[in-house]
Amino acid sequence: MDGAAMISGGIGVSDAAFDQLGTILDSAGSGKFLRVAVLGGGCSGFQYTFDLDETIAEDDIVIARDGVRVAVDAVSQPFLDGAVIDFKNELIGAHFAVNNPNATSSCGCGTSFSI
Asked: Could you give the angle at the alpha carbon of 38 between the alpha carbons of 37 and 42, nearest 5°?
């Protein structure tokens, strides 16, 4: 994997994810960022969500490079400790993905996992 910006909480964002997000945000308008969260549900117990947002909460963890920002809420942070948010462009499609060492299993969709 290419380089990743890491924060003290141990969450990383790959160069590919920052590059793709920069492209998306160029057309989405200024002030927006990518919010990554972990929610209960999905076919494996937890699921990742990726949304464009405009409001940073006081307890959000923010990873930034060249004005492009990714935020993770404080509740999701422990589930993502040591993980790297990446962007993959594969034959099956292009998508943001999480390489998470905390996940003991995940389903084929790539957005659902268990710990």
From this structure: 130
> Which three-class secondary structure state does DSSP give residue 81?
coil
Total number of domains constituting the chain: 1
* CA–CA distance, 62 with 3 (Å, rounded to integer): 17
pLDDT tens-place values along the chain, 115 residues long: 456 555 546 899 999 999 999 999 887 667 899 999 988 765 557 888 899 999 999 999 999 999 899 999 999 999 899 999 999 888 777 888 888 887 765 554 445 444 5
- In CATH, what number is assigned to the domain containing residue 63? 2.60.300.12
